[in-house]
Amino acid sequence: MRATLRGLAGPPYTHDPWPGPLIHAWRDVAAGGSPTTAATRLWPHYLDRVHTYLASNHRQRLAMLNEAHATFTATVAATPQPVR
Question: What is the arithmetic mean of pLDDT over 45-62?
Fold first, then answer.
């Protein structure tokens, strides 16, 4: 399964650590950008995250999830919301 995920990811992953790409996608859509474009850009980051998660033990998974959740929620809370 992990080999299949790696095959879908394309070239080696060398981008921002998670949840950075998720935060960028969220900001793009919140600013009026296309959700489809944001999802397309997020895909290789998401595949890398899934692969990393599957290759980790349960304690590492818990630590990764806690860190990503804390980073994402702190960033979203600090980002001004557009007035609609």
Answer: 85
Distance CA 39, CA 18 (A): 15
Distance CA 78, CA 39 (A): 22
- pLDDT higher for 54 or 2? 54
Preceding peptide of 19 cis, ω within 30°:
yes
Yes or no: say if 84 and 35 are a contact pair by the CB < 8 Å rule. no
Query: Before 21, cis peptide (omega within 30)?
Result: no
Instruction: Kindly report the pTM of this predicted structure.
Output: 0.62
Q: Please state the length of the chain.
A: 84
* Residue 11 backbone dihedrals phi, psi, to 5 degrees: -65, 165
Q: Are 44 and 10 in contact (CB under 8 A)?
A: yes
- CB-based contact 45:8 (threshold 8 Å): no
